[in-house]
Design goal:
Number of strands of chain A: 0
Largest sheet of chain A: none
Subcellular location (chain B): Cell inner membrane; Cell membrane
Protein name (chain B): Cobalt transport protein CbiM
Order of helices and strands of chain B: HHEEHHHHHH
Radius of gyration of chain A: 23 Å
Helix content of chain A: over 70%
Strand order of the largest sheet of chain B: 1-2
CATH architecture of chain B: Orthogonal Bundle
Structural class of chain A: mainly alpha
Structural class of chain B: mainly alpha
Radius of gyration of chain B: 18 Å
Oligomer: heterodimer
Function (chain B): Part of the energy-coupling factor (ECF) transporter complex CbiMNOQ involved in cobalt import.
Membrane topology (chain B): Multi-pass membrane protein
Distance between the termini of chain B: 46 Å
CATH topology of chain B: Arp2/3 complex 21 kDa subunit ARPC3
Main location (chain B): membrane
Number of strands of chain B: 2
Number of domains of chain B: 1
Chain lengths: ~110, ~230
């Protein structure tokens, strides 16, 4: 593995660790509710009479909402993958003479 | 950082919409100009949009026992300057407001102001500053993206505090209260966002060095691997 690839994997690992630490150490009985929702609770606690004056036009159920969140991530990630593939291919085609030289570097 | 639908009083909602609108319109023009003047960067522009789209969908647990999400707007601000992200970030927010009931139409102006305007400008400012101070690309990208993330959430805290001042301690007390909900949850997530943005910039440097040089993100072509290096 090249040094560059190693650094990239370490970056991924660091993100996974930061995300996993709260799950492991705070305990599985914590709900990890969204901070956005906590803000709403805070508002309602301070202003018990407050009624939202507008409600979402389309409000999916919790299960559906998590599917849509996953879909958002998947669509974005798929598009990112496509873009990286295209950029990489374009770079290779733009330097046909260098491709043969660059390949050993990619395998390293 | 999404302020839920209907939770900003009408006057505040209108004021933030009026404040955000010119930035978004200017951003739309900036996107059109970018595509026309340098069509080769279209793919990078797509990558900047897709990155914000992915990151704002990731709910990551935090040490406070709640969860929150990154914003992903630092990358595009560094690559294309902040106006471009004013449009792309607002599109992401609109998608979430309409389809996931996350955020809202009435709060779109306020959410766009924090995530698509304040965040990107902080990212860009920090990136330029680190460059001037002689910091490397990765350091600049990390600080830019993570501070932009924190700035976004701090802005949300101020927006909520202005709408809901504390009965005893006023707006300032309320900033502290909402800041405790948002900003502290957000610190580890801002670090995550910084690391992920560094990762994607490293990958972009590999596949698209010429465009990054032209955009001024890279200052010298030294990062292109020399063929004889292998």
């Amino acid at each position: 593995m090249s040094r560059s690839a190693l650094v990239n994997w370490l970056l991924v690992l660091a993100v996974v660790v930061i995300a996993a630490v709260p799950l492991v150490f705070i305990g599985s009985d914590t709900e990890f509710g969204g901070a956005d929702g906590l803000a709403v609770e805070q508002i309602e606690a301070d202003h018990p009479g407050y009624e939202p004056w507008f409600t979402p036009v389309f409000q999916p159920e919790a299960e559906t909402a998590s599917t849509l969140f996953a879909l958002q991530a998947a669509v974005g990630a798929g598009f990112l993958g496509y873009l990286f593939g295209t950029l990489n291919t374009r770079r290779r085609l733009a330097r046909p003479a260098a491709v043969a030289d660059a390949q050993p570097d990619d395998r390293a | 950082m999404h302020i839920a639908e209907g939770y900003l009083p009408p006057l505040h909602a209108a004021a933030w919409t009026v404040a955000a609108a010119p930035f978004v319109v200017h951003g739309a023009r900036a996107v059109v100009r970018q595509v026309r003047e340098d069509p080769d960067t279209k793919l990078l522009l797509g990558a900047a949009g897709a990155f914000a789209f992915v990151l704002s969908a990731l709910k990551i647990p935090s040490v406070t026992g709640s969860s929150s999400h990154p914003t992903g707007t630092g990358l595009g601000a560094i690559l294309f300057r902040p106006p471009v992200m004013a449009l792309l970030g607002t599109i992401v927010l609109l998608f979430q407001a309409l389809l996931i009931a996350h955020g809202g139409i009435t709060t779109l102006g306020a959410n766009a102001f924090s995530m698509a305007i304040v965040g990107p400008w902080v990212a860009y400012g920090v990136f330029v500053l680190v460059g001037k101070l002689g910091g490397g690309l990765s350091v600049g990208v990390f600080l830019a993206a993570s501070l932009a993330d924190l700035a976004t959430y701090s802005t949300t805290s101020v927006q909520l505090a202005l709408a809901y001042p504390d009965a005893a301690s006023g707006v300032l007390g309320s900033i502290v209260k909402f800041g405790a909900i948002f900003s502290i949850t957000q610190i580890p997530l801002a670090v995550c966002e910084g690391l992920l943005t560094v990762l994607i910039v490293r990958l972009l440097v590999k596949v698209s060095p010429a465009e990054l040089l032209r955009l001024g993100v890279l200052r010298r072509p030294a990062t292109t691997p020399a063929p004889q290096e292998a």
